[in-house]
Give the backbone structure.
Amino acid sequence: MQTKILLPEAQMPSHWYNVVADMPTPPDPYLGPDGRPVPPEAMAAIFPMSLIEQEVSAERWIAIPEEVREVLRLWRPSPLFRAHRLEAALDTPAKIYYKNEAVSPAGSHKPNTAVAQAWFNKQAGIKRLTTETGAGQWGCSLALAGQMFGLEVRVYMVKVSYEQKPYRRSLMQTWGAEVFPSPTDMTGAGRKILAAHPDSPGSLGIAISEAVEEAAGRQDTNYALGSVLNHVLLHQTIIGEEAKKQLALVGDYPDMVFAPCGGGSNFGGIAFPFFADKAAGKQVRLVAVEPSSCPTLTKGVYAYDWGDAVGLTPLMHMYTLGHDFMPPGIHAGGLRYHGDSALVSKLYNDGLIEAMAVPQLETFEAGVLFARSEGILPAPESCHAIAATVREAKQCARTGEPKTLLFNLSGHGHFDMTSYDRYLSGELEDFEYPEAAIRESLQHLPKVG
Amino acid sequence: MQTKILLPEAQMPSHWYNVVADMPTPPDPYLGPDGRPVPPEAMAAIFPMSLIEQEVSAERWIAIPEEVREVLRLWRPSPLFRAHRLEAALDTPAKIYYKNEAVSPAGSHKPNTAVAQAWFNKQAGIKRLTTETGAGQWGCSLALAGQMFGLEVRVYMVKVSYEQKPYRRSLMQTWGAEVFPSPTDMTGAGRKILAAHPDSPGSLGIAISEAVEEAAGRQDTNYALGSVLNHVLLHQTIIGEEAKKQLALVGDYPDMVFAPCGGGSNFGGIAFPFFADKAAGKQVRLVAVEPSSCPTLTKGVYAYDWGDAVGLTPLMHMYTLGHDFMPPGIHAGGLRYHGDSALVSKLYNDGLIEAMAVPQLETFEAGVLFARSEGILPAPESCHAIAATVREAKQCARTGEPKTLLFNLSGHGHFDMTSYDRYLSGELEDFEYPEAAIRESLQHLPKVG
């Protein structure tokens, strides 16, 4: 029985897929403080024009530069796995496939965009990049990418993750990056948070504020974001493109596609290329899976809000829990984000994709089942997609439906062993749904227009 | 430029290669306390007969059972990489290839034999396996393998590694194994060591003694060794067999093959299939790379000695530093072993393979260079092979020789970040060559005959 479906390097996609080209109505523009659309040039203080053009492009296909492809070949095309042993463990008639993005040197899908962003910045003459990181997967990815092209990288790491995952910091440093626990006293945004909450565990929103502030203030420095923005999701579509080619090699096509959803790049990366088929009339369900304690799509509102915690970014029309919502300290640090990609939000609001929320314990239960059947230890973020897939596969076992399920194994959990320790020792708990905190933060949404 | 040379699953080797068939003179037998060859049946207290038969076989090819191949397909064939970026960083005319064994779920080459051993034990009706582990890579591999076939696994982990690498313990537990820091007070061997050295940091030799003692005392329990023995090296030859096929795909063949050498399975795994060609007259140099602070081949003696620390195993004719030699606490825990495989020792003594020793700092320097050029963070053990390859590639840069070099990237360093931390912060030091300790322990070699 074939386990891995491999794509030769020569068949690695040459273009990224831009979902905007197939959306029934275009996404709403980013707005400035005055409520008017932000002109592309306004983002030039922190992004190179090449990425800004991708951010607003409506072209269906955008070429991947050969220099980027050369670095991606260090791990791409990534293998697609048929999860024979997980299927057997679940005694399900469903066929389960997973795309293994854990094979990148940084251990997740994040380098797909980090490498592209580093290259476009280098082309624009930039010498330094700043960024934020939650679980550390994005920071590692940018550290790796910066190293590949000779750019300096500074990472603001969410403090709770910095403490939970010290080895992610070491990994970033091995790849030559500087790493600081956020909030820091090095930026105005950090100092403001520390003044109000000296013991703040940090959040992605706060760390973004710090990194953006520094990049905006230095000519030689730009900012790189690991998710949310259109060009980031664009760079991740290589995942879904490859998966489609690999499934075609074995004559298969998914009924449902599952991916974790924090900022949206994990989900967009694998799901958007399948959306192209859906837009052309094909039956396929695309499911974004989020933590029940940070339920942006399933419990948030569709409104204009800032991407960061203190209002430095443009306003984005997205599902949000409020920019000052502080998610509980779940172990899937990469999913602790108050908002969501504007593209994912728009598709969800238009009823073209689905979303579901899964509690923390269920995700680790699914992750351990996966590790014990398929071998690979999944990242806590990836466990969300596994949990959703397991739910569906169990449903298939009850109904007898032989559905074809695909999920994105977005990363490995080698740097998340404290989380597994806590789960295995029974110390891990589900958080209550933070209804009051969400109600409170939603009252602080910006007034628009 | 092609980076990864992939082999389809259908071309995964169907047989292991037994180097004994091509050795000019056969290896010397294992001896009992009476100085006479140990009959195969004498090992039946801790090993199944199928593995004992492999241990003494002289057949060139031994079939890999389909059940074993099915599990190996979770990560095999492993990719062969052309290290374009490392070559560029070294400005060398040498062509550098590496076989990436870090892609296994346990992160090293060790599951190749763990899976085979677990399966043959299960076939023999065994319910539990005991073993030792140094850096934790072997213990993880057996935990994974046991889980794949429903066997219980108990791991005695060298105490200094248990403390340096707590997350390896968590990983073993995630795969369902029990883990204890060795020496423990659970075995006679452990209690004996603790009585003499209450603060003993442990060693592979001590941990082996504990695991063997437990297995010998229980009917339902066998012992599994991660290196040294003939059948273990046999199971690893799939590495070199695949590498040969992959190099043939790009029309290449190595001038030199490098691998880390502790107990010998890493080296034997990649090198033995090339030895088959060498025995047939082909020019190829096979180089075992060891730590200068545990220089078994380069500074030890070729003599009969015990494989463990207290004399529970048969006597093996091998290079040894003395069974009670306590190696300095280097970070490549998997290479802290006083002896070496009898097969590797015999070939080295016959002048058919080479050996070199590398100091700790040089190995980490090479590892960081590798991580910053090729992306992948190597295990400290693997850094030994990288360091040796880098030395040779630099020599090629001086002489202009375009040699083809191949090394075994035996594992990743995701669970070795404290070691990288210490290296990057300048806290890591080279150990002095432990001449006095070796001279002392060599006086305790057993008298034979």
Notes: The first helix of chain B runs from residue 49 to 56. The two ends of chain B are 59 Å apart (CA to CA).
